[in-house]
Amino acid sequence: MLLDKNWMLAGLFFENISFAAENTNPEGIRKWAGIGIKIFDKNKDFAITYFSCSAPLLEKLDLSELEEWALNGLSISEKDQSLGKSYFSLKSEASQELIEKLTGSVALSEIINILRYYALGLSGVNFNILSRTALGKEFDGDSINPVIAGNTIYLAPRIKKYAYFEDNFKIYKLSIMHEVGHIHFISNELERDGTAELMTEIRRRYSTMKKRLPLSGMQAEGIIAISDVISLFPNQDLAGTILGVLEDARVEYMIMERYRGVRGDLEKIRYQMLLTRPVPKGNIEEFMEALLWISIGHEPVYDLNKGTKLLLAQIRPLLEESVFRDDSSVLDSFKATFNIYKILDEHEGPLSQKEYGVLKNLDYRGVSIGAYNRKNSLSACSNENIIRNFIPESKPELTEEQELLHEEKAKFQPTYAEKKNWNILGSYMYDEWDGIINDYKTDWCTVNEVEPFGMSGGYYDEASEQYRNEIALIKQVFSRMRPETFRRMKKQSDGTEIDIDSCIDSIIQKKCGVNPDDGLYMRWDKHDRDVATLFLVDVSYSTHKPVNFEEKSILDVEKDSLIIMTQALESIGDSYGIYAFSGKDRDDVEYFAIKEFEEDLSDNVARRISVLEPVSNTRLGPAIRHSIRKLERIDAKTKIIILLSDGEPFDISRGENAYKESVAEEDTRIAIMESNSKGINLFCITVDPDPGKYLDNIFSDSEYTIIDDASLLPETLPVLYKRITT
């Protein structure tokens, strides 16, 4: 039938039939082909795209869901033919949204801000939550375990473990809650006092060990490494796993006791995950699986051998006494580990001669980034890798393979920041508008937020001295913008006091035969100035150009303007943040944090302004979207983005990634519309002497001004700011 329709369709069908066969039966394949024929009857090109791209969807969707998705694509394309190809090629946002809705899966990108606030609310710690795709190739495509690097949590980009959205969303929440517990109740620090005594007992028990670590060789400042204690056990893999299970259970007990409101829903998901685990084979493996069950308050649902039942009967009281207490610590987990190891050694030992298949942790529990590469998990340092599968490291640590992976992906990293060895605060994915398909490209751009670092604030100090008189004058002008706590309002129809002047005027008007108005009162009105302004500075390479015949560059006068503004704004108390940006390509938009809104003006800010220099190109849309993200966190009545730029949006990308002319202009215009929709006003100040039509095209929904002489920017910016905000 397909050959009768079109030979290319038949070829694509046979090319992709193996993928389809992996997820459906022969009858399902016929239905999959039948949907394609229906699409062909409407549009040949759409059908070709369908057969090229849809087979993998059978892993997520059943045939009725696939048909619903296809019919929706045809409906969309009837309104606009240009949307059809991107829909059936799975590139459009509308296509991805319907697939996610049909599957019940949860996309991290849609709920990532909710998770950040959730983590902050539980712990008071600003966790950096990113997609695991930022780490490169996944070590286990079916795994949804988070990867932990300090206060950064890398989560699976999408979860569809259960049929319903809410249940999948709860897995994300449970992952966050678990890692909050490790940070909040400190899983990775062992104080020397107390631990030294435990280590002595372990040595005494297992004195035949070849490896002995003197206490004087431990870490500085009274902290002993967990791996050093585990290395004292004959079977390090087993001891490390026991500790991991107990410590995970301890922090979850602590956090569920403290935040009881989260217990009900999350306990349901935790139990569901236990029920789907395979029944273990082998006595030690059976015991370890049973230990995992009882550590979170459940009895195994599979049959246990007599030996395991006896072991559990001895161990339950240990957990109650050591682990499940409001004042327990990681040292208590260690003591319980030692006791459980001894009991197991007496029953199954000697454990040093036993092979053990390492227990896989529950899906929502994170692994340290140091264990992200599992190829060497049984190496000489295997006890460290075992521990990392359960207890996150306090600081990020990359394996050799991860280091190589980062080198291979260098072109996707913030190259300028890497070169300067500046601190990379996080990476954020943003959609980008494609005017050709008239839709968003999902997760298309990466914005890397960077904290610049410099040793000297000399430029800031010199500019402050150069503009000393101007700063004093501007402060005087701005002081009139500062609101008084209460403002006296005269000639009111009601109020708390008589307005004597108005009363006298009223008497005079009556004598003259004129009917006076009724504004005879005076009241005091509280008047607040509530403004938050984000200064977004273009530091593209073109800002190196000199200004007129002066020695300064465009970037220099932008920096001068910021220096004047910082001191002026401090005088009136407006909330403000300063950020700079440059974009090499869609995977390398660097966003430099010069001054955060909550940060005070300090020597650090002065140094960050001083070290700014021209970088690369101008991928403007993602920078605006990240600025919107910043301002959404700020509580203010009036929110403004002031963009300082010297030219049109552009970067060096080619082909599908190209960002110039109408493509760049349209994406920037849409980004500004997104800003307006959130109540954030954008004002552009450009020093481009020949802007052509791009300014009108981009800023049709916002304001802009052109400063022909860039050297005038420092004195012009404060005047413009006063006009914009009053």
The biggest sheet, with number of strands, parallel, antiparallel or mixed sense and barrel status, is:
8 strands, mixed
- Over the alpha carbons, how many angstroms does the gyration radius reach? 32 Å
Using the alpha-carbon principal axes, give the shape.
globular
Helix-residue proportion: 40-55%
Name the beta content range: 5-15%
What's the domain count? Answer: 4
Low-pLDDT sequence parts: 209-222, 373-381, 395-411
Number of helices: 28
| CATH fold-level name of the largest domain | Rossmann fold
Major sheet strand order: 9-10-16-15-14-17-18-19
CATH class categorisation of the largest domain: Alpha Beta
Structural class: alpha/beta
Distance between the termini: 71 Å
- Provide mean pLDDT, rounded: 81
CATH architecture of the largest domain: 3-Layer(aba) Sandwich
Beta-strand segment tally: 19
CATH superfamily of the largest domain: von Willebrand factor, type A domain
